[in-house]
């Protein structure tokens, strides 16, 4: 897939006086957003989670612009947390049109081939830039070949300019602790990773991992989702960015802890062999209503963002 520019389809309305950003107005006139940053992408019309760019500077994140294309500054504004001091759990996933979370066993959601594309990788990376902690299940770390959680120089400068540590913390959820302490995930980590586990985990594996990571118990035989989020919050890691996989997301959804879902719809049919983005272990859970914050388009790929709608 080519490196398509990202344009905004929804919300379409803009603050008074700005040029339109709707799909219909994205011709030669584009969205008139050069230099507009958050304001030019409809911040006034977004829900609580959208467009919360107040206080975020754009140092080092400018990008060349084609008409209608969102810059990294625009995207950071769209994905910025509304309120940094409020704990929040966001997940970022990719799915085929027919609902598969994998193609050939991999997601391609930013790390490998498969369902992903450069536009999706770009948003994936910018979301890492915004968060306090990247949370990933051990299954995804193993299957997607995760390395150290290292950001590029522009992202690091941006974080420092915005009062954040250079890198987010990497937190891995594993009941069995079947993780290699010599792997780059740990050996090259810029920040000591956190491993969230259960008390039943083997003592020998625990000891090995404790040399390279903080190992935190969050349950007896299973990692309890509420305990794991509480453990991160207690460390000051309030903005949780979960990159998968389906089992971990299932635990978060089952515990009703997911606040935001960023879902990329990859323009492909997988055929039905792959898993869905949420695996809840076969247990039925109450429907979780979500509201649409934005829809972006890159070529034929849709990048959506939803927020939890709490029943009042
Ligand atoms: N489409 C996407 O956006 C996307 C994103 C991520 C991954 N994926 C794909 O999803 C597949 C992996 O799926 P998965 O469901 O196995 O991934 P996962 O959720 O990352 O990993 C499951 C493993 O994580 C640990 N774990 C998760 N929740 C736990 C809990 N509540 N308590 C204890 N341990 C917990 C366990 O590790 P231990 O076995 O170590 O105990 C468990 O075996 C891969 O093919 C990957 O490519 C797709």
Give an overview of the whole structure:
The protein has eight helices and ten strands. The chain is α/β, with parallel strands linked by helices and 312 residues long. It has a single domain, classed as Dihydrofolate Reductase, subunit A, CATH 3.40.430.10. It has a ten-stranded mixed β-sheet with strand order 1-9-10-8-2-7-3-4-5-6, sandwiched between helices. β5, α6 and β6 form a beta-alpha-beta unit. The longest helix is centred in the middle third of the chain and has 13 residues. The structure holds NADP nicotinamide-adenine-dinucleotide phosphate.
Order of SSEs: EHEHEHHEHEHEHEHEEE
Question: How large, in whole angstroms, is the Cα Rg?
Answer: 19 Å
Please indicate the percent range of residues in DSSP E strands (runs of 2 or more). 15-25%
Give the mean pLDDT: 83
How many distinct domains?
Answer: 1
**Structural class based on helices, strands and sheet pairing:** alpha/beta
Annotated CATH topology = Dihydrofolate Reductase, subunit A
Strand order of the largest sheet: 1-9-10-8-2-7-3-4-5-6
Q: What general form does the structure show?
A: globular
Spans of at least 5 consecutive residues whose pLDDT stays below 50 are 15-63
What's this model, at a glance?
This protein has 312 residues and is α/β, with parallel strands linked by helices. The chain has helices at 72-79, 118-130, 138-143, 153-161, 184-187, 203-210, 225-234, 246-254; strands at 7-10, 88-96, 133-137, 169-173, 194-197, 214-217, 239-244, 260-266, 290-298, 301-308.
């Amino acid at each position: 897939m080519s490196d398509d520019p990202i344009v905004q389809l929804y919300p379409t309305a803009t603050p008074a006086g700005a040029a339109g950003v709707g799909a219909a107005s994205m011709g030669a006139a584009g969205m008139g957003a050069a230099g507009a940053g958050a304001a030019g992408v409809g911040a006034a019309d977004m829900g609580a989670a959208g467009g919360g760019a107040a206080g975020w500077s754009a140092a080092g994140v400018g990008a060349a612009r084609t008409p209608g294309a969102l810059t990294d500054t625009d995207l950071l504004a769209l994905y910025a947390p509304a309120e940094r001091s409020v704990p929040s759990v966001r997940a970022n996933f990719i799915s085929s049109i027919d609902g598969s979370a994998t193609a050939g066993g991999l997601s391609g959601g930013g790390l490998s081939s498969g369902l992903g594309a450069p536009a999706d990788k770009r948003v994936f990376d910018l979301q890492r830039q915004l968060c306090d902690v990247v949370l990933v299940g051990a299954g995804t770390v193993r299957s997607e070949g995760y390395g150290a959680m290292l950001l590029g120089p522009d992202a690091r400068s941006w974080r420092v300019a915005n009062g954040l540590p250079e890198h987010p913390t990497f937190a891995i959820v594993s009941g069995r602790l079947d993780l290699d302490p010599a792997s780059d995930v740990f050996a090259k980590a810029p920040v000591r990773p956190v491993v969230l586990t259960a008390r039943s985990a083997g003592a020998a594996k625990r000891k090995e991992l404790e040399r390279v990571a903080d190992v935190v118990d969050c349950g007896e035989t299973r990692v309890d989702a509420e305990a794991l989020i509480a453990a991160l919050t207690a460390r000051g890691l309030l903005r949780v960015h979960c990159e998968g996989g389906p089992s971990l997301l299932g635990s978060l959804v089952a515990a009703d802890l997911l606040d935001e879902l960023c879902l990329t719809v990859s323009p492909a049919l997988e055929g039905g062999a792959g898993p869905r983005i949420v695996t809840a272990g076969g247990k039925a859970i109450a429907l979780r209503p979500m509201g649409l914050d934005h829809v972006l388009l890159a070529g034929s790929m849709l990048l959506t963002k939803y927020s939890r709608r709490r029943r009042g």
